Amino acid sequence: MLGAVPHACVRSVLISGHIFLNSSLTEGFCIAILEAASCGLLTVSTRVGGVPEVLLDDMIVLAEPDPNDMVQAIMGAISILPRIDPQDMHDRMKKLYNCHDVAKRTEIVYDRALKCSNQNLLQYLSRYLSSGSWAGKLFCLVMIIDFLLWRLLQLLQPAEEIEEVPDFFLPHHQECEVLDGLNEE
After folding, report:
1. How many other CB atoms are there within 10 angstroms of residue 45's CB atom?
2. DSSP annotation of 42
């Protein structure tokens, strides 16, 4: 175990390996497995949260969060390791997570969220209440507090008094230069 690795050294550490092991019990969107796959490592991870959606099936071996299942997944990864081309994995990750595609996918998520915004508080509460015996009640309480705070802020600062930021458009050639600069980082 290396412990904390300085950010500037992460790539050097990753490229010295072949398999990246992620044994989280909870995880949202795991950036660490993206970094590992970008460095050409085959990933073995627990099947929790958003992890199964982050990488393509041939880039990751998933296991239940159980030691025996993790051992079996590692053994499976070792057996397919000779078929893994680190440069090919890096190239595929570069295409899979470029800023244009990520921006497009993010926009789709926000568009879907906006279509759901016409639900009233009672519809949200009934949905949250079905999230579990105690968790549902907790989510409802948080939602009610959030709603009351939002209404208070609306009274203190009405939406009509908030200046909107105008849309900003770059000429196409400048937009590409800005996005290419982001890709290089």
Report:
1. 26
2. E
